[in-house]
Amino acid sequence: MRVERIALSGFRNYDEQTVAFEPAVNVICGPNAQGKTNLLEAVYLLTGAHSFRTRFDRELIGFDCDWASILADVDSGGRSQTVRLLFQKGQRRQVTVGGVKKTSASLAGVMTAVLFSPDDLYLIKEGAAARRRLMDSAICQLRPGYAGLLADYNKLYENKTRILKDWREKPSLLAALDEFSDGLARCSARMIRYRASFVERLAAAAAPIHRDFSGAREELQLSYRTVSTVTDTKAPAEQIYEQVCAHQAAHRQAELDAGACLTGIHKDDLDISLNGTSARSFASQGQARTAALSVKLAEREIFKAETGEYPVLLLDDVLSELDAARQEFVLNRIGGGQTLITCCEDENISRRTGGRVFTVDRGRIR
Ligand code: ATP
Ligand code: MG
């Protein structure tokens, strides 16, 4: 998977700009606020997802423009396709592939990307929600049935939460409580198996990447943590279901007292440790960045194994906080597939990378 060429019109701070990327490493450098992240954002939008920076397409349109477009030649499975995105004020975005109208969602079949942005440090340092999001969004892309399960779970969870919140005022609500709990346990049993097998693959792929990245100084371990009564996350769904039910039963009164849903896989976590200690509590900034990036690179390996192709790797501002050896790894040793790396270094970076270097200057690329 790679982007051969991209042409931007009226997109963010780009007037008219065309860039042809190399199939391997592309380094996009320049001072702050020149348009480096804007360029990665344009590439990311080709996957059909929303921007990683805004939910509002209108923000993508240049301040002095009425519309913005992104036109790109994307090579996927040896076949080149032209993707065009058009953003107009007050209208829905228009997507075409090879001149034929498509939905945004269908672009996932044309172009995939793995993005690492400074925000991904939250993966290591913040609460479990970011790590659950990582698991869920990756599994949704890999396993077609999972998105439906997740949607069902969220709906049941909302209903159960409402009952737990309001049952004192309306005791009749309690009649439905056990039914929602049972539905949640059934979804949980299946989702736990998906999450466990994804984390097992992720852990196996991340460990050697991180060893190499850290110059063999650090061992990265990932493990999946779920409802405590579940003894084997890969057991048959029926067994996991029984164990989740047992946990629910033990917490039923506490949930009624608290007026909140205290037990379930919405509390799952992906434990990340370095040399046996929790990365969340003890990792330095550079270690956290390295670990987060190793996890993302591992995700990319899993996609490669599933689809036969590496997704495009977008690395926004990863070099800061990394020492020279770790920077060297990012610049030269992430093998396979196309990589776009932004950084604030000057053009001298070309001495440190075998990749092609582009310099961005106020919305123009050299
Ligand atoms: P940094 O090194 O600080 O991350 P960057 O090169 O990644 O900088 P970008 O985030 O790409 O910078 O933003 C470049 C400029 O684009 C910013 O000054 C921003 O104000 C401007 N910009 C953002 N959105 C628009 C828009 N819709 N129209 C015009 N300019 C915009
Ligand atoms: Mg930036």
List keywords for this structure.
366 residues, alpha/beta, Rossmann fold, Glutathione S-transferase Yfyf (Class Pi), Chain A, domain 2, 6-stranded antiparallel β-sheet, 6-stranded mixed β-sheet, 9 helices, 15 strands, 40% helix, binds adenosine-5'-triphosphate, binds magnesium ion
Secondary structure topology:
Elements: E1 2-11, E2 14-20, E3 25-29, H1 36-45, E4 67-76, E5 79-88, E6 94-97, E7 100-102, E8 113-116, H2 122-125, H3 128-142, H4 144-166, H5 177-213, E9 220-225, H6 237-258, E10 269-274, E11 277-278, H7 279-282, H8 285-307, E12 312-316, H9 324-332, E13 339-343, E14 356-361, E15 364-365
Parallel strand pairs: 3-13, 3-14, 8-12, 12-13
Antiparallel strand pairs: 1-2, 1-4, 4-5, 5-6, 6-7, 9-10, 10-11, 14-15
Helix pairs in contact: 3-4, 4-5, 5-6, 5-8
This protein binds adenosine-5'-triphosphate and magnesium ion.
What does this structure look like?
- This protein is an alpha/beta fold.
- The protein has helices at about 35-45, 120-125, 130-140, 145-165, 175-215, 235-260, 280, 285-305, 325-330; strands at about 1-10, 15-20, 25-30, 65-75, 80-90, 95, 100, 115, 220-225, 270-275, 275-280, 310-315, 340-345, 355-360, 365.
- The strands form three sheets. The chain has a six-stranded antiparallel beta sheet with strand order 2-1-4-5-6-7, with helices on one face.
- The longest helix has about 35 residues, at about 175-215.
- The model has no long low-confidence stretch (mean pLDDT about 95).
- The chain binds adenosine-5'-triphosphate and magnesium ion (MG).
- Magnesium ion binds next to α1.
